[in-house]
Fold this sequence. Notes:
The protein has one helix at 3-15, and strands at 17-18, 21-23, 30-32, 35-41, 43-47, 52-63, 66-77, 83-96, 99-109, 114-125, 128-138, 143-147, 150-152. The chain is mainly β and 163 residues long. It has a single domain (3-155), classed as Lipopolysaccharide (LPS) transport protein A like domain (lipopolysaccharide transport protein A fold, Sandwich).
Amino acid sequence: MPRRARLAIVLALVAAVVGGSVALAQPPVFDVVGEPVAVTAERLDADLSGKTVALSGAVTLRRGELSVRAARVDARLGDGGRVAWARAHGGVRLEHKGSHAEADEVEIDLVDRRVELRGHVVVGRGATRVEAERATLDLTTSRLSLSQVRGSLAPPSASSAAP
């Protein structure tokens, strides 16, 4: 990414700082594979030469129906200023269309289209709740793999069962 484009991103981020908090919900600045990501955090640090961004303090990221909350998020920017890789840590919680996941750390590789959740992983939807030490989600195939699993799988509710 040209230095001028990186500088424009940082200037837009700095202009969004209000009362010590980064508020990027209007308009979104980051672009992840064509979709905007709204960001809020207490602090943002950017290394323009290294194409890295660090968000800390009550970080919230929203993209469509996906929401991520964490104490800190570190990201690497790829070509065109798009986020290519990110790691969230510190009480990470993801929510998407009625499902949720929690972990100590979540790493997202948008180039390889893979998400890894590590440490005290909890995945749930409705009454189903599964705990694991590690989970991997392939974003291309939507396959979820968990290791060291324990929990409960709830049957479909009577209202969603076919007659």
